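Why run this: before we spend reagent on co-expression, it is cheaper to look at a predicted model of the complex and decide which construct boundaries make sense. The entries below are exactly what would go into the expression plan.
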Amino acid sequence: MAMIAHKCKDHTVTVVDINQARIDAWNSDTLPVYEPGLDEIVQGARGTNLFFSTDVDTAIREAEMIFLSVNTPTKTYGVGAGRAADLRYIEKCARKIAEVAEDDKIVVEKSTLPVRTAESVKRILESNSNGRQFQILSNPEFLAEGTAMADLEAPDRVLIGGDQTPEGKAAIQKLVDVYATWVPRERVLTTNLWSSELSKLTANAFLAQRISSINAISALCEATGANVDEVAHAIGTDSRIGPKFLKSSVGFGGSCFQKDILNLVYLCEHFGLPEVAAYWNSVIEMNDYQKHRFCRRVISSMFNTVSDKKIAVLGFAFKKDTNDTRESAAIYICKDLLEEQANIAIYDPKVEVAQIQRDLEIDADNKYVTYCESAMEATKDAHAILVLTEWDEFKALDYKKIYEQMQLPAFLFDGRNILDLEALAEIGFEASGIGKG
Ligand code: UGA
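The model came back. Tokens follow.
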């Protein structure tokens, strides 16, 4: 929304939330999310044509177009628990709009939703329409965290789905006009509602599938002496495969991939397609396998025990350039290590201590976990280093100095394949990466 405000000066964008603290943060100098380049865009437009408020009703009344951007977590209760998307927030939004709106509205689904959610939103709005016309559009977001501003500025495509009726097409055109302010028209794709909803889930499933595929191969590389980075490069030069999203890792994290695939799996089951469901579910199973496999390798390399040993964990975010830890592989790996009674010293340049404690479900005084201000501090007297997030600063550390302050043999496990293992071995490290036999 900040990017729309930034690009379309003649539109007014009001972001509303029922959470006062969140809105206060958006109105302050410290925004509630860390995202490179976001501060400038928000500060540039805030107070001019970008506003943050808790006055939901007024914002609905005044808006011509309303974007639903609430979270759609995996359901934790009832039917579909653990897989289906929890749509209660979407439904509450739809009911709120039905209650408050005084005239026609275009309602845009921005949240990632199961296919045919628009149908429910439409039903709720239409059964309470009282003469008002509601058009529902689907406009899924494809930005990735850490590169959000660049992704928004120059998206590969913008997708807009809507009813193929004259009214639906007119609504689609209104949203096309917004994006066409800065996105080349041929990159703004229009489809029917269901294609748009399904494309979002499918895009994430394909991306995650590539990572699980290369991670599956990484296990075979370790067994055979092949190098997964070399394999990824070799296959990525085939223009039909392409080089992106072939970086083997400790496993993908983030708020979207797992949730969206689980959702896809649930949809397939719902529509009586168990083979399709099992196919996509295997992408998640491979990811779980990769996370635990990494930890098992750490333990077996370290003489089958990490109990009472100090393990430095470098990086806790699910990827670099974000403070987001949702579904981060680091959470699973640290939990596995804690079960083995290791002492872990965590350093991440952006993630807050309280967040780590929530993720690991531990109290502030847990004696097995310490929180460090630097990689130097975390690695002091450590038996091993685990690189779990690919922060650039980890590539530039003085590993000679680090080695000198560690216990011997000094183990280093690069869960992101960002370090020069040969150079580390020359210093004296027992260094290993992912998928390097
Ligand atoms: C992902 C998609 O990339 C976006 O297109 C989509 O809009 C977004 O989900 C969403 O649905 O909101 P995001 O989760 O922010 O974006 O981050 P990614 O860059 O996709 O990374 C996800 C995870 O995969 C990270 O843990 C990352 O480290 C890992 N990854 C990524 C790999 O392990 N290897 C790779 O080659 C690429």
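Residues 193-224 form the longest helix (32 residues). The chain has 17 helices and 13 strands. Bring this page to Monday's planning discussion.
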